[in-house]
Amino acid sequence: MSDKVFILDEIVVKPGFVQAYRDQYIAKYAPGARSRGMCLESIRITPPLELQDQPNTLHILWSVANVAAWWTMRLGGGDRPFDPAGTEKGGWWAEAADLTVSRRRSVMVDYAAAS
Amino acid sequence: VTFIVVKSFAVTEDGNIDDVALSLAERAAGVAGLGSSFVGRTLPGGINDGQIIWRAAFAKEMDYQDYARAAPTSIHNADCLNTIAYHLGRHGSPHPNLRDGIWRALVVSVLPGIDQNTRLRFEAEMLAMPGHVSTIRNWALSRVTASLGARPWSYVWEQDFDSIDGLHGEYMMHPIHWGSIDRWYDIEHPDHIADGFLIHTACASATAQIR
After folding, report:
1. Which residue of B has its CA nearest to A114?
2. Which residues in chain A touch residue B47, judged by CB atoms under 8 angstroms apart?
């Protein structure tokens, strides 16, 4: 399979922290992700306004070029050291948990490309 | 039920891989109650697996316990990195006569606090994998009963393949693997249950190891 693989993070952010979470995600997670070959496709918010008394959910969509690139992303690679234990990535998610209610991650392909 | 012990070894700077492998094979030949013994050199691409693997199958756990009590604690020019002992778990061995293939094992440590229902879902998904990946010839998912080494090891996921292409090709590239199963292991996935430090190893083997 040579088609793009998409990675969707759905992050339920604590009320009032959407901007802070988004800024930290871009500053602390995105550079490492990009260096592993991930391409940021979009960041969307629902409900479509920032709430102060209820959580918002951010839908952050990434892609990698193909399955081989997915494994490179997964195990390090690019200009990052081989990191099968995910130490660098795990550190970010543990730190960011203070600002979130919950999160999901989905791995997707275009339906037409699914085997 | 067959009782298995897997040991991984790192050969010291003064040692020679062939000499250590031969020494292990000779030592195994004298072990009472041993049903089968396999000494393999780890192939490139392994993770935390050292240079040599010894996989021994005992007819009964008692035979292993007798051996373990009397066994020498060290081997010349090699350090034992990990010891993993288990009853052979749920398995399928439709190709017991496979020759000159690849034995592969993934050894993981489940994080503290993971509940039983989650473990059962993980086990069910792992055991469904051979139904998707045609290059898996034989397989076994076993719960570790005792271990020594870098982590308190929890599971051993073993497969026999016809060739390394079956592992590097369809097994790694199948969407059931990277798009679903892998989430149990990926430390940045919220569903992960395994410690990021794991053992992945593969060795050429003249015979099927899962029988």
Report:
1. B175
2. 84
Q: Read off the pTM.
A: 0.93
Residue A101 and residue A79 in contact, taking contact as beta carbons nearer than 8 Å: no
Q: Is A68 in a helix, a strand, or coil?
A: helix
Inspect the interface and report whether the beta carbons of A90 and B187 lie closer than 8 Å: yes
User: Virtual CA dihedral for B11, B17, B20, B22, nearest 10 degrees?
Assistant: 160
B175 interaction partners in chain A (CB closer than 8 Å) = 1, 67, 109, 114-115
Compute the nearest-CA separation of A27 from chain B (Å): 17
In Å, how far are A72, B111, B113, B190 from B118, measured between CA atoms? 28, 12, 10, 13
Structure ipTM: 0.90
pLDDT in tens, chain B (211 residues): 699 999 999 999 999 999 999 999 998 888 888 999 999 999 999 999 999 999 999 999 999 999 888 887 788 999 999 999 999 999 999 999 999 999 999 999 999 999 999 999 999 999 999 999 999 999 999 999 999 999 999 999 999 999 999 999 999 999 999 999 999 999 999 999 999 999 999 999 999 999 8
Subunit contact B178:A71, Cβ cutoff 8 A: yes
